[in-house]
Please model this.
Amino acid sequence: MSDLKIHIRRATQADLPFLVAAGKKETETIGFLPTAALREYISKRNVLIAVGATPASPVGFLLWRLSHGRRQAHPSLPTGRHVKIIQLCVLPRFRRQNIGTRLVQQLAQIASRRRAEFLSAWVAEDIDAVAFWERLGMDSPWARIGGSRRQRFHLFFCAPLSEGRGLDLNLDKATEAVTP
Ligand SMILES: CC(C)(COP(=O)(O)OP(=O)(O)OC[C@H]1O[C@@H](n2cnc3c(N)ncnc32)[C@H](O)[C@@H]1OP(=O)(O)O)[C@@H](O)C(=O)NCCC(=O)NCCS
Model:
């Protein structure tokens, strides 16, 4: 499908109803975050929103946080300063138009400006989005059982960032600028 015209900006508290409504329909894939947590991510400027041109309404979001380093839980895992993708979601009718890819690319640029060494995301192994992360060229060197109730496997996806450029992956279509 061809790319939809969108722009990407930081979320404001006015986007909260969109985040709550979109997230509610995707708890199987992105998990659940309470409204108070969403508010906090917004106030820390850690949420990107993709906005469609006509009408100018939100069509997707990406929520992230910076980590200053992680324990080396497995020898193949990187440990340095990195950005974790906490939630990524594109509304169903806008999928497969490169919006998810562009959100990740924007985050990669922000992350590399903040001197993060890599991007990471935990992804349940039984959802369609696994193909999305693989398509971006991210590695998944590790998996673990996430959550005691369902015993579902989660894959750890990660990709190194290059200084000033973001990700050197299959992201060449992703060139939108983030508006402040
Ligand atoms: C995963 C998600 C964010 C992808 O967003 P998107 O805007 O549709 O992704 P893109 O259009 O940028 O996809 C890029 C490529 O990834 C792959 N891909 C994306 N979604 C896919 C799917 N459902 N099945 C197989 N491959 C997929 C394709 O190769 C696609 O390129 P193509 O359309 O040219 O074949 C979106 O499907 C979504 O919100 N899903 C529900 C929530 C979710 O699972 N979030 C991720 C949790 S870790």
